[in-house]
Amino acid sequence: MYHKEISNERKIYLKKQRRYKNAVTFFRVFIIISFIALWEIGGRLGLIDSFVLSQPSRILSVLADYKQNDLLLHIGTTLFETGVGFILGVVLGCFIAVLLWWSPFLSKVSEPYLVVLNSLPKIALGPVIIIWVGAGTRAIIFMALAISMIVTVLEMLNGFIGTDKELIKMLRTFGANRFQIFTKIVLPYNIETLFNSLKINIGLSLVGVIAGEFLVSKAGLGYLIVYGGQVFKMDLVMASVIILAAAAAILYELIVICQRFVLKCINHK
């Protein structure tokens, strides 16, 4: 089989790109390691108050003794609530966005209400949500759902409306109905918009769950943070915060992997 040779200029360009990516990775790792090292050294030398800010070594001790604080139970609870709220919010949000795209009149009528709902801090509705759906897991999931749903509606609706008008006109000239236009042009055109929405929503859903756990919960990382603050166990608080950061990063990366897989499948068709 014939293989096209890469020019020297191309080789130099690729080499520079690899160096650039390696440099970015190196400095990312260097910054986090330096931060952890300075944090630990500052705590040991008394330069920072380790009672308030804790220390990496003490946080590792809490993580290692995960059974004592039922960390796995609390992590599982938060991830379950986040997953359910996220999925429901995305499904309902996409459904509502399709309805609003289908009916421009309904879209115009609901536009100011969507803007207001998106701007309204959902934590302010916490007590009302608890009264509506009851205390516990349902209220927490509902809060995550409310946050992710509104963002999904706005993101997807803007994407649908911004679809290439010339492509839509072309299908209409061939006699395509609204359903065919949506399935053949509008939806495929907004796959990346959907995944961008998912990337935003996964973090917002986690924020909604933690806010709900602050208000009413008996388990979850939000509960651990509140409990740790009340009994002055700052090691537990900081460990919970770090677990939250790691969970958010992992969930985000899972969506990125799904996006690459879906786009790869679409491009191979």
Secondary-structure map:
Layout: H1 8-45, H2 50-53, H3 56-64, H4 71-102, H5 104-119, H6 126-133, H7 137-161, H8 165-173, H9 178-189, H10 191-215, H11 221-230, H12 234-268
Helix pairs in contact: 3-12, 4-5, 4-7, 4-10, 4-11, 5-7, 6-7, 7-10, 10-11, 10-12, 11-12
Structure description:
This protein is mainly α. Helices cover 83% and strands 0% of the residues. It is built from 12 helices and no strands. Helix 4 crosses helix 10. The two termini are 24 Å apart.
Please summarize what this structure is.
With 269 residues, the chain is mainly alpha-helical.
Helical percentage: over 70%
Question: How much is the average pLDDT?
Answer: 85
Q: How would you spell out the order of helices and strands?
A: HHHHHHHHHHHH
- The number of helical segments is 12
- The N- to C-terminal Cα distance equals 24 Å
The tally of strands reads 0
Distinctive features:
269 residues, 12 helices
